[in-house]
Amino acid sequence: MKAVHILGIGSPSGDDRAGWLAVDALLASDVRARHDGIVIEKLDRPGASLIPRLENASWVILVDAMQGGGQPGRIRHFNQQDWHGYGHGLSSHGIGVLDALSLAHALGFLPPRLDLYGIEVGSVGPGETAGYEVLAAAQWLAAWIADSLEEAAA
Questions:
Q1: 54 vs 20: CA distance, rounded Å
Q2: Which residues fall within 8 angstroms of residue 31, CB to CB, at 6 or more apart?
Q3: How far apart (Å, rounded) are the C-alpha atoms in residues 110 and 139?
Q4: Tens digit of pLDDT for each residue in 107-133?
Q5: Nearest-angstrom CA–CA distance, 96 and 92
């Protein structure tokens, strides 16, 4: 399998750590030991610094919190056609993930495959812990990603 970058985006504020929780669950599953070339990182509101992390990857998987007014824990997959039409934004971070990806696209830096997952969040207050629904969704999504990596390697 070519280079795969799995990036969990978040902050230490309540449910906003959804991407971090998914990465933690992937790391606990020891997915790196089963696949060469996997980079797994937790990023704290990366903004435009997300763009260099897309380089040298054939497949990038991004997981971030989203605030779309839905039920906390709901998972949504976004493809490139969805980016421009998603009016809620995907992030509460200054330059959001969708903005950074749109810029990467304009600069020709997108990898051949990019999967973007948003986990609907509830409370994102500083110092709060993530809610049960978000934690469960992050664990489920991590298992889904691990299965997708197995299928791609087969």
A1: 18
A2: 38, 40, 145, 146, 149
A3: 27
A4: 888 999 999 999 999 888 788 889 999
A5: 7
**pTM value?**
0.87
Nearest residue to 17 via CA among 103, 100, 139: 139
Q: Checking DSSP bridges between strand 75-78 and strand 38-44, what pairing results, if any?
A: unpaired
Show the DSSP H helices in the chain as ranges: 18-28, 31-34, 80-85, 97-107, 132-153
Helix extents (H) in 18-94: 18-28, 31-34, 80-85
Indicate the SS3 state at residue 90: coil
Backbone angles phi, psi at 57, to 5 degrees: -115, 140
* Separation of alpha carbons 13 and 25, rounded Å: 18
CA-CA distance, 127 to 107, in Å (whole number)? Answer: 37
